[in-house]
Design goal:
Helix 17 links the parallel strand 24 and strand 25. The chain is α/β, with parallel strands linked by helices. The strands form 5 sheets. An 8-stranded antiparallel sheet has the order 3-2-4-1-10-9-11-14, covered by helices on one side. A 6-stranded antiparallel sheet has the order 5-6-7-8-12-13, with helices on one face. The chain is built from 18 helices and 26 strands. Helix 7 (261-269) runs parallel beside helix 13 (405-425) and helix 9 (304-321) runs antiparallel to helix 16.
C-alpha cells in the first residue's frame, strides 16, 4: 500500500522523486523519505506528508541523478521518523524502499541480531535489507545475486528498490505480490508502484511479474526470474494522459472524479454498445461468453466499494441471466475452504487490480478449476494478468482514496456482462435487450442531470455535518447503494454510518431512531416503492430526520421526508448508477465542512496490497 518512486538517468532525481511521491500519496501518507547518492548515500525522511519532508530539505544539497523515494502506509511500526523509509543496511552502503509485508521477518531478525546486526526501526523492511547485506557478506556474491537468494527465503509480499553507495549507476528492484512498474526512457529508467509518477516522462513501461528481479546498470536493463533465468520483458505503451492525474481546477480529486462520471461511464461503453444497431460486445470476454452463459454458478470476489458493486452485479445477473450468483469478501473467501468446482466462474473486481486479498482469492479459485474473469481499471495490473479473461472499466486514474467513479464504472461493466450473457442464454427478450441498451446510452446524460443538484446537496450537508451517526436504507438494487453511501460517509467524514436493507430496520436498527438520527432512504419508484414509503413513515413516527433520494416527479415522499434529492427515472437495474451520485456529493460536502482531508482520509490507502 506504500508508494515507491525511484530514478536513475541524466535528470536531477530529487525533484522527480518528490513530485512522484506526491502523486502516490493516495497509497500512504504516514511518513515519507528519499535516498540520494551525493557525497555518499544519504537518507532524508520525515513523519507526515511529503510536503513535511520537502520543507525540511529546502537548504539541503540534493543534487544527484540517482535516487529512491517512499511514502508510507504503516504496517510494522508506528508512523514516525525512524520507521519511515528508506532504510540503511548495517554498514549504510545499501538503502531499501519496500511496499508489502515480510511475514517471517521476526525469525530472520533474531538470527541477524545473533550475528551482531543492530536495528534502528521497528520495520520488517529494515530486516530485509540487513538480510540481503548478510547474504552478500557471507557468500561474496554480487548484490543482485544476494537479492535473488533473499527472495527465495523471505515469506510475504514485497516490491523493493535497492540503491548501492558503491555503484552510482545501479538500481535493483524485485517484486512478489506488490505492484512495480518500470518506465523506460532514453538512457533513463523510472520505478514506481503505478504509472502516475512516470507518465510525465515516458509512456513506455514494463510491469514486473512476481518473482522477477530487475537490474539497471550503466544505462542497461536486465530482468531475471527467481531461478536466475533471463526474461524478455514486454514493453507496453500507456494511453494515460498527464491531465488525468491533475486536479483540473477542482478543489479535491474526489470532487473531480465525481464530476467525471458522465464521461467515465460513457468510456466504459465506448466501442462496446450501440443501441441503434443492437450491438453489445465485450472483446475481453469474446472467447468465454458461451461458457459463461452455460455456467450454473458465478462467485464474485471483491473488497470495499468493489464488493458493493459486486452486490449490484449479483442482482443484475440473477434477474436478467437467471444464474446463481454469490458475492464474497475476498478476505474471507481465501481463508475458508470454499466449494469451487470446474465450470464455476469467479468474477474478481478491483479498481487497482492489485488488491492482495482478491489476488489470493483468484489463485485459490484457479487451483480448484474455476474460470476467472477480471473487472479492473488499471491496464497491466496483476489481477487482469492472473485472469483468464476480463473487461477493463476504462474509468481513468482515480486518485481520491474514497472510490467514486470506479464504483459506477464497475457497475456499468457488470451490467454489460449480465446483459450480454442473458442475451446469449436466451433469458432476455430482444425488445428488453434493445431497451436496456438505449437506457445505458442515456445514463451519462442522466448523471449530468443529477450533478446539477450539487448546490441543494451542499445545503443538506450543512444541516447534518455535526451528526454523530447516520443510517442508510434501501431495498433491492438500492440496498448496495445504501451500503456504499454509508461507506463513503465513514471513509471521509469519520461519522459513524451503517447501511441496511430497509426491511431489516425493524429487526434492530429502529431502536436507534430519534430526533438526532439522520436516515437516508434510497426511495426510487421501483417494485419496492410502497414498502419503502412505509419504512419512511416508521422513521418519521419516531422523529427521525429523513433524507430521501427519489425519482424525478415523485409527489408522495416529499410530503413525508425532511429533504429530498431527485434523480431521473431509469430501469431498476441501472438505478444504482444514478442514486449513488447524490450520496457521494453528500459525503464530500459534509467532510469538507468538517475540515477533513477528503482525498487522503486518516488511516486509509487507495490500493490495499497487503493483508
Amino acid at each position: 500500500m506504500c508508494g515507491i518512486v525511484a530514478y536513475v538517468g541524466h535528470r536531477e532525481a530529487y525533484p522527480l522523486i518528490i513530485k512522484g511521491l506526491k502523486r502516490l500519496e493516495y497509497r500512504g501518507y504516514d511518513s515519507s523519505g528519499v535516498a540520494l547518492l551525493n557525497d555518499g548515500l544519504n537518507i532524508y525522511k520525515k513523519k507526515g506528508k511529503v510536503k513535511d519532508l520537502e520543507e525540511t530539505l529546502i537548504e539541503a544539497n540534493l543534487k544527484s541523478t540517482i535516487g529512491i523515494g517512499h511514502t508510507r502506509w504503516a504496517t510494522h511500526g508506528e508512523p514516525n521518523d525512524k520507521n519511515a523509509h528508506p532504510h540503511y543496511s548495517s554498514d549504510s552502503r545499501l538503502a531499501i524502499i519496500h511496499n508489502g509485508i515480510i511475514e517471517n521477518y521476526d525469525s530472520i531478525k533474531k538470527n541477524l541480531i545473533k550475528k551482531g546486526h543492530v536495528f534502528y526501526s521497528d520495520t520488517d523492511s529494515e530486516v530485509f535489507i540487513h538480510f540481503i547485506e548478510d547474504i552478500q557478506q557471507n557468500t561474496g556474491c554480487l548484490l543482485e545475486e544476494a537479492v535473488r537468494l533473499a527472495m527465495k527465503e523471505v515469506v510475504g509480499a514485497y516490491a523493493i528498490v535497492i540503491m548501492d553507495a558503491t555503484n552510482p549507476s545501479q538500481l535493483i528492484a524485485a517484486r512478489k505480490g506488490s505492484p512495480l512498474v518500470i518506465g523506460v526512457g532514453e538512457g533513463e529508467f523510472f520505478f514506481a508502484s503505478d504509472a502516475t509518477p512516470i507518465i510525465e516522462y515516458t509512456n513506455e513501461v514494463i510491469y514486473l511479474n512476481d518473482y522477477e528481479l530487475a537490474v539497471v546498470r550503466d544505462g542497461e536493463l536486465t530482468v531475471k526470474n527467481i531461478d536466475n533465468i533471463l526474461q524478455s520483458p514486454y514493453v507496453q505503451t500507456l494511453e494515460m494522459e498527464l491531465e488525468a492525474i491533475e486536479k483540473g481546477g477542482f478543489e479535491h480529486f474526489m470532487l473531480k472524479e465525481i464530476y467525471e462520471q458522465p464521461r467515465s461511464v460513457a468510456d466504459c461503453m465506448r466501442g462496446r454498445v450501440n443501441a441503434d444497431s443492437g450491438h453489445l460486445m465485450l472483446g475481453g470476454l469474446r472467447d468465454y461468453i458461451d461458457k459463461l452463459a452455460k455456467t450454473k454458478r458465478i462467485v464474485i470476489v471483491a473488497c470495499g466499494t468493489s464488493w458493493h458493486a459486486g452486490l449490484v452485479g449479483e442482482y443484475i445477473f440473477e434477474e436478467l441471466a437467471r444464474i446463481n450468483v454469490e458475492v464474497e469478501y475476498a478476505s474471507e473467501f481465501r481463508y475458508r475452504n470454499p466449494i469451487i468446482k470446474e465450470g464455476d466462474f469467479v468474477i474478481a473486481i478491483s479498481q487497482s487490480g492489485e488488491t492482495a486479498d482478491t489476488l489470493a482469492a483468484i489463485e485459490l479459485a484457479k487451483s480448484k478449476g474455476a474460470t476467472i474473469i477480471g473487472v479492473c481499471n488499471v491496464v497491466g495490473a496483476s489481477i487482469p494478468r492472473a485472469s483468464h479473461a476480463g473487461a477493463y472499466t476504462h474509468a481513468g486514474p482515480e486518485i481520491g482514496v474514497a472510490s467514486t467513479k470506479a464504483f459506477t464504472a464497475q457497475v456499468t461493466v457488470l451490467a454489460l456482462m449480465a446483459i450480454a450473457v442473458a442475451r446469449k442464454k436466451g433469458t432476455l427478450h430482444e425488445d428488453t435487450f434493445r431497451r436496456l441498451l438505449f437506457e445505458l446510452e442515456r445514463i451519462p446524460s442522466k448523471i449530468e442531470k443529477v450533478l446539477q443538484a450539487d448546490e441543494k446537496i451542499k445545503v443538506i450537508a450543512e444541516q447534518f455535518k455535526d451528526a454523530r451517526n447516520f443510517i442508510y436504507l434501501g431495498r433491492g438494487y438500492n440496498f448496495p447503494v445504501a451500503l456504499e453511501g454509508a461507506l463513503k460517509l465513514k471513509e471521509i467524514s469519520y461519522i459513524h454510518a451503517e447501511g441496511y436493507p430497509a426491511a431489516e430496520m425493524k429487526h434492530g436498527p429502529i431502536a436507534l431512531i430519534d430526533e438526532e438520527m439522520p436516515v437516508v432512504f434510497i426511495a426510487t419508484k421501483d417494485s419496492s416503492y410502497e414498502k419503502v414509503v412505509s419504512n419512511i413513515q416508521e422513521v418519521k413516527a419516531r422523529k427521525g430526520k429523513v433524507i430521501a433520494i427519489v425519482t424525478e416527479g415523485d409527489k408522495l415522499i416529499p410530503t413525508m421526508a425532511d429533504y429530498t434529492i431527485e434523480i431521473p427515472a431509469a430501469h431498476d437495474a441501472l438505478i444504482p448508477l444514478l442514486a449513488t451520485i447524490p450520496l457521494q456529493l453528500l459525503s464530500y460536502h459534509i467532510a469538507v465542512m468538517r475540515g477533513c482531508n477528503v482525498d487522503q482520509p486518516r488511516n486509509l490507502a487507495k490500493s490495499v496490497t497487503v493483508e
